[in-house]
Amino acid sequence: MAFWRKSKEVERRLGDHMELVEKSLFNFQQGMIAYCDGKEMEMVGEFASKTHQLESEADDLRRKIESELLGGALLASSRGDILEIIEHADRLANSGESVLNYILLQQVQVPASLKPLLREMTDLSVQVVQEIKQAIQLMFTDMRRALVHTETVEKIESKIDRQEKEFIRDLFNMNIDLAEKLLIRGVVEKMTKISDRAEDLADIINRVVAQRSV
Q: How would DSSP label each residue in 3-20?
């Protein structure tokens, strides 16, 4: 059962927003696959452009939803929770776009031996967003079931953290210039912001469930 008075319109709009966020991250994933497969930077740039377009659409929709909420679409006690959730969800799309922009603008060349791990981190980053999407959908129908997905988010985030350490360890054991190492490290540092922000959002959902279970 839901813990707040439902608003079907707000529920639908949040679903639309998460669809855009998910599509943005899907294009981010395709861009990273192209990059790891050694495709031309032009192709990576095309996916970056699609990622940016979808991120902008998600941002516009977020503002509309916030306006509706502030206009009284939900009970006052519920508005703050939804506003906080949608703001954090919007940052997920921003994070994906940031990774591709970093690679493209600085023409970062990740060593071939590290690309399989980078590819796995990419896939997990998209998966963590899909888990968040499921948790948000369940916020309006069965918040207790949403906790199953927030728990999965935390497990994936921990795995990505371990992979980041492995990536950096292997990178700094390579015989390349320190400046290049630091530039390459920036890719995974930006990548992990996706799962870090997903975990922040999972914590918010967990807090809301705890507060409304009392």
A: SS---HHHHHHHHHHHHH
- Nearest alpha carbon to residue 36 among 117, 152, 155: 117
Element counts in the chain: helices (H) and strands (E): 6, 0
- Asked whether the beta carbons of 74 and 10 are under 8 A apart, the reply is yes
Q: What is the mean pLDDT of each run of 10 residues along the chain (214 residues)?
A: 56 88 96 96 96 94 83 63 88 94 96 97 96 89 89 97 97 96 97 96 89 66
CATH of region 8-213, choose from 3.40.50.1370, 1.20.58.220, 3.40.50.300, 1.10.10.10:
1.20.58.220
The pTM for the full model equals: 0.89
